[in-house]
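Hi F.,

I've been meaning to write this up properly since the lab meeting, where we talked about keeping a consistent format for the predictions we share between groups. The idea is simple: the sequence comes first, exactly as it goes in, then the C-alpha cells exactly as they come out, then a line or two of notes. No screenshots and no reformatting. I'm using this chain as the first example so we have something concrete to point to.
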Amino acid sequence: MFKKADDRIPIARVNESYLYKEDLEGLVAEGTPPEDSALLVNGFINRWATQLLLVDGAQTNLPEKMQQDFNKLVSQYKKDLFTKAYLDALVKRNIDTTVTSEEAQNVYDLNKETFKLNEELLKLRYIKIAQNAINKDDIEKRFKRYTDEDKRYLDSISIQFKSYTLNDSVWVKVSQVINKVPVLYAENKKELLKKSNFLQLKDSLDLYLMQINDVLLQNDYAPLEYVKPTINQIVMNKRKLELIKQLEKDITKDAIKNKQFEIFN
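Output, unedited:
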C-alpha cells in the first residue's frame, strides 16, 4: 500500500492507499499497441483496487481473533523466509561440495538395498543410418570390430548418422533405447538383454546397428557410477543439515557472548 505523502503522481486511490504511476513501470512491454496497453493498465488498476477493498473489508468485518491469527501467520512466514534465505547463503558460503570416492562407496554400501533397479540397464553403442548409405558396409564392419581407429573414424563421419551413441561405457535405461529405436518392440526387446549381442534391425528407410556390451536386470544392484548423482545428493543433504545445526548453535553462542541474547530468570 502506498501513502500519498510525496510528489509522486497518483493514478488511483482506495481509501487512504494510493497507486502511483511509477508502480506501473514494466507492466506494458515496449511496442504493445495502445489499445492493448490500456487494457493491461486498467486490468492491473482494477485488480489492485479489488484486492485492497477486500482487505479493508476483511479488516472491518472479520473477528479480531482471526485477524490476530492471520497477522501471526504473516509474521512467522516473513521470519521463515528471512531465516531460510540467510541460512542458505551461509551454507553456500561454507559447505564443502567435494564428495570423495571413499565417501560415495560408504554411502553406497550402507544403502545398497535401496539401489536395486526397477528397470533394466544397458551399456551399448548404436548407430542409425540410411539403408542406401554408400559406405553402409564399411560402417557396419567398423562398428562391429570397433578398434580405437574404428571409433575415431566413426566419430569423424558421425554427421551422416541420423542418430547415434558411441560411448558404450555409460549405463542407460532400456526404456530410453526403445524410445530412440522405433523398430524395437516387445518381441525383440529380449535381444537387448543379452550381453555381447549384436543387433541389426531395419525399417523401410533406415538401418539400426546396436552392440550390447553389458546388461543389468530388474532387481540387480545399480552400479555405483550410475547412482553417483543420487549419492552425491544424499551426502550434500546430510552435510547441509549438519552445517545448519552448527551454524544455529554458533549464532546463538555468539549472541550470548556478545550480550545480544539473554534469558531472564
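Notes:
The radius of gyration is 32 Å.
Strands lie at 10-14, 17-20, 121-130, 163-165, 172-173, 197-202, 206-216.

If this format works for you, I'll send the rest the same way.

G.
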